[in-house]
């Protein structure tokens, strides 16, 4: 509901209003001179036109209201004789050189063929009442002349709206001949409601007297044609003019021209015209001052002060002298295209222009429209539909200017908010807080920098192996901008990766899991801040990776401890001990001890980042075919013992001394002890029956018994390592852990010289002392063992190098 309200509030703005007005104008039929400013502009153009000289003898005869009433309802007696106006009007109607138009407020209702009327009339005419007889003769004559071929009757019709039907309380004249024109192709596919058409009437045959509708429309726009269902009828002005021009069959070419025999009158598509308002008004008479010798070519008779009579007179003058304007057929489409173009201009272009440029451009467009409007009016006698678009341009530009001002203010506020959120998200991203970074920019506006940051956040999720979050981030990015970089490929590969992981959920992955992704398009995983390059080894507790510290571009070795190997109940204690002992190992700074840079935790494992060592583990030299020289073994063991003594002095016991945890570089003779503090974690953490985590082959008896482990355990393990490096064999071997444990605790080892007789006797003494079952009988310290080995090395191999 809140989103719907936000959408509604956003939609109800000035820009939407400008669009809605444009759509309304496009769907509404255009009629010229309906607007006040359009009439004012029309008047301005007509002041630049010189009215043509008038040669049509047109006059108006204005009758009193009582006379008009009697013409509708029938003449009555004035005393015992005919009213005077009948004697005055009959000679006027008798003039065959004058075309008469009579405007009545209603259709005449008096009849001459009524039987009673005929009987009374005949009796009076034959009797001795000459005044009454004369009245009936004049009444009959008036009736015949009103229905003669030189008189056109008209009924005022105030409804000039072509979109609505108006009732017409009289019988219409015969319909015009109508045919198609070339302009009809411009309108034939339009809906009926949008096609230009004459004003519509709903007429009924109420009497036998045909009457033409008299336009009494406000303003200057005068229809000449009227529509009744499918028929087109001439209006009063056109009917009078047709009789004057002796054209009995006017022909209307739809949407184009009216033909009166050889006379062609171009009209608007709706059959209307706009008379030149500055034409000289015709001479007006009353019955009293009408001159007997006056013989106008056209005489319009109506009630005194009737506006429809004056409009009809103006229309007749305009028709005869071609002093009228019309809207061309293409003007309809020009009107629609202009509105559409202006709507696009206002809604799309104005917001992208500066205020000054948009004002100047709108003024230029308005000036061109004004010049075109007045130019066509003066030179072509055409009225183009430009005023309504001009008003739309003016008001629309004002509305858009207000909208742009308000929108820019909102944009500045939004930009400020977006920038603050972006900076916050960027800081979160740099701190590795991808989830917080994603939340900070959830509501920000889309931009290139935002898309780049979203892409980087998705890549950071990938490196953290949070593939579900990475997919959500990339999907959000794809929604903001489709086809951004390689997001689509990443989504596809992440989906496949999730399917692979879900297929392995029911199995114990153990050490088969790896962080390294072979697909080059996937982002490199990270542990903490370290980028994982490749896998370089596997141990009992996890996988070792070659990593890279991006801050100082330093290679590091990252050893992992996979939580999936341990019981969930023991995991909290396990993690606490791991981080405590890893921290202790990180405090060791010795040339022969690996440097620990960092320790951290991810969702499913812990890791230690340490120095990446060049060389090989001593486990590569424990086979009979790959043994190191004896002197080298003495040297290496002394270095290891020296490193162990340093750790023991720091109260740290290695607890997992073995060949695999000692790295030797033959080129530089560098010896490095690794994995401090890890072995103790595995002593009492068993995840499978009979499986002890660690290296039982190198464990001391007290370790296997579960007794408290001291520094002497490292001396025992170092002795086992020296034994294996010299002989290529282990001092205690068995097929299963139980037998191995028994032998280490209870049995003596086989002397090294029994395996390799060329070894010096010092090797036997050193190893025998280191492998004593009782910790008290071993070397007291690793330093003592180091000193003994070095002395023996100098003596047996004459070597002074330490």
TrEMBL record:
GO terms for molecular function: ATP binding; protein serine/threonine kinase activity. The chain crosses the membrane at residues 12-30, 330-348, 355-378. Its EC number is 2.7.11.1. Keywords: ATP-binding, Kinase, Membrane, Nucleotide-binding, Serine/threonine-protein kinase, Transferase, Transmembrane, Transmembrane helix. It comes from the Bacteria. CDD domains: STKc_PknB_like. This is non-specific serine/threonine protein kinase. The lineage of its organism: Bacteria, Pseudomonadati, Pseudomonadota, Gammaproteobacteria, Cellvibrionales.
